[in-house]
Amino acid sequence: MIDVAVIGAGPNGLAAAAVAARAGLNVQVYEANESIGGAARTQSLDGSEAIFDLGSAVHPMAMQSPAMRELGVHERVDFITPDLSFAHVIDDRTAYAYRDLERTVEELGGEDGQIYRRLVQPLVNQIDQVSDTLLNTLLKVPSHPLALASFGAATLGGMGLKELLGAKYERAAALYSGCAAHVAGGSQGPANAGAGLFLAATAHAKGWPIPRGGSQAISDALAAEATAHGAQIHTGVRVNHIDELSAQNILFDTSAEEAAKLSAGHLPEQLSRALSTTRRSPGSCLVHFVLSEPVPWLDPVLATAGTVHLGGTAKQVGKAERAAVHRGSATPFMIVSQPSQFDDSRAPEGQHVIWAYCHVPLDSPRDMRQEIQSMIQQAAPGFSEIILEAHVVTAKDLERQNAALIGGDLSGGTMDLLGTIKRPRVSLDPWYLQSKGLYLISSAAPPGPSVHGMGGYLGAQSMLKREYRIKNWKSVK
């Protein structure tokens, strides 16, 4: 019998495998797809000569993550960090978020610059302490209470800026609202505001980096750490029920619903029902474009941004995001990543790739290419004429590519306050599924979505403590 079986080889599953293997356990990883990476994969599509990030493309949380640092990702991956972390197009104006906060404040100017500074600077100054607190379960006694207090105060300020003061401080509010809108659904509560603040603060701390070669480089680095310590990874292997596995412990890097299905008959009925009825965020529709030249932005500064937000004022962004919950929007908030501006390995010589997406209703089959293309065209006249290829991935397609992305939900479940705390259950050890040896370690467990590997990193440590009484896995020889 093997010690640990990990179902799913996304970043969380691979991080868990690396932790367990470094603790000296026999670890086997099973991935249904033919390649590892989950939502951090980079591949060709439909025979294209270009390569595309199938999920995440830009990785601010990778730089903040203790898992990525401890498991050697920072040493194995060449992260390219643009000076201009992101920009937000309002109409004929643009707000810029440089890694240099002082430059950002200066570019915003006047009262906009000052209110933005007051909002994010306390978090930038304490970014490591804030990260240690937020990249964990929120029910844990905080190691850095002062940083948590600063974050709480800033969250209230962010809610006020986004919802009440957006007209007065239009550019600062738009810049911040674009970060908050990375969390689908347009929530007006503290969870959305806090997530947006954390994301904005990372832009001015360690930046929003792009891994050379694509997101796959992160997954490959985690796999290299796991296999270097003896873990074995099996691709193209679908597990239908945990009874098929001869393993003392099973870690699920899957959706909550899939974890319940695979462990049917082994979980407490109430927990199984809760996992099977996880509340979901809206889905997403992605379009991967191959271009004959860089995007011809009206504002040439946008060519230097790793990420561009399109969607107008804070009020317009919020309206579009709330519309995405049930019906979608003809003018959605949109996120554009242009990795080939910084990494020439993504497309044939002279060509460029961009990755653009917007939120749509959960499980929507809607193709948003025309809406996305039209909005880019407004900010970059001539864009339509330079398109060589366009590969559309609807919300339904996202789930087909990666079964963990139920209905195209990239968040692993709703990210409002309740969905953040009850993830998947209210507990100091939320990864443990109340049945010996069973643990949920995906984005459906704390600390939630983004490519940081912390769900697997923390979930594996929970398993080591509970099942083996190993409290310091780093010291195991």
TrEMBL record:
GO terms for molecular function: oxidoreductase activity. Residues 13-381 form the Amine oxidase domain. It holds the Pfam family Amino_oxidase. It comes from the Bacteria. Interacts with COX5B; this interaction may contribute to localize PYROXD2 to the inner face of the inner mitochondrial membrane. Probable oxidoreductase that may play a role as regulator of mitochondrial function. This is Pyridine nucleotide-disulfide oxidoreductase domain-containing protein 2. It comes from Glutamicibacter mishrai.
